[in-house]
Amino acid sequence: MGQRIAVTSVASNGGDYPADDEELASGNAGERVDLDRIRKAVREILAAVGEDPDREGLRETPDRVARMYAEVFRGLHQDPRSHLSKLFTQKYDEMVLIKDIQFESFCEHHLLPFTGKAHVAYLPNGKVIGLSKIPRVIDVLARRPQMQERLTEEVADLLMKELDAKGVAVVMEATHSCMTVRGVYKPGSSFVTSAMRGAFKERLATRSEVLSLIFGGKS
Ligand code: ZN
Fold this sequence. Notes:
By secondary structure, this protein is α+β, with helices and mostly antiparallel strands. Helix content is about 40%, strand content about 25%.
């Protein structure tokens, strides 16, 4: 029998945000990562590229890589909506903006990391959410094989729906390892994606306002 571990047990000691009750509750005990299967596959890759998987330096590598994948893809087994269940009723209808939310994800084309910052704004419609919840939502969606474009849209669509917001704006800036360690070799280039929903999409002034708040200080 292959060794299997619950993804939530990895999540509770990984990442920037300590696990809270909701995070633990969002893990489904039935969803497991097959570590043994990953170990075998990594060993096979090492042999296929011409390495000796049994040499001392590589002996523990399949196990380390298996645990790493369980950690970085833990979001596959978590529901981001679990972080959005507690909304507060608030008569506040101005923009809420959280800047510089650091995130780490893995590109689904090369299984290499892309990392950067997310900026998220919303226009409340009578309901607001605790500030720590948005980074948690991003973390769940980012810890999956991803594309930055899709990640940006998923965050925007989810917040739009769950908060019943008047508008949501998500901008993500990231550096992709698959552009720096292979292929075009362009270190230092950053990739910017945005998703505008509701008022941010429909009203130029609202969109301009959020973009200047996000990028305003930069030259
Ligand atoms: Zn890639």
